[in-house]
Amino acid sequence: MEMKRRRFLQVVLAAAAALAAAGVGLLRRASPVRVVRAWRVRRYPGPVRALDEARVRHPGPWTG
Predict the structure, then answer these.
(1) Please, which residues have CB within 8 angstroms of residue 3's CB and are 6 or more apart in sequence?
(2) Apex CA 20: angle with CA 6 and CA 22, to 5°?
(3) pTM of the predicted structure, to 2 decimals
């Protein structure tokens, strides 16, 4: 089967379009995301202590 000029251009343009689509996909993956949605936490991630009002009322060790 001979490759005529029109068929040659179709093949070249299809290959260029495939490369461009792959390049756009790679650029989207490589570029930083502007907004990141955080997952909702199901519970508090640290230890929960009972409220001790005496410790709350006096200044902590990092006060200046």
Answers:
(1) 11
(2) 125
(3) 0.42
For residue range 31-61, list pLDDT tens digits in order. 777 888 888 888 888 898 898 888 788 887 8
Angle (nearest 5°) at CA 32 between 27 and 35: 130
What are the residues whose beta carbons fall under 8 Å from the beta carbon of 11, sequence distance 6 or more?
Answer: 3
What are phi and psi for residue 56, nearest 5 degrees? -70, -35
What tokens were used for 47? 């230890």
Alpha carbons 13 and 42: distance in angstroms, whole number? 51
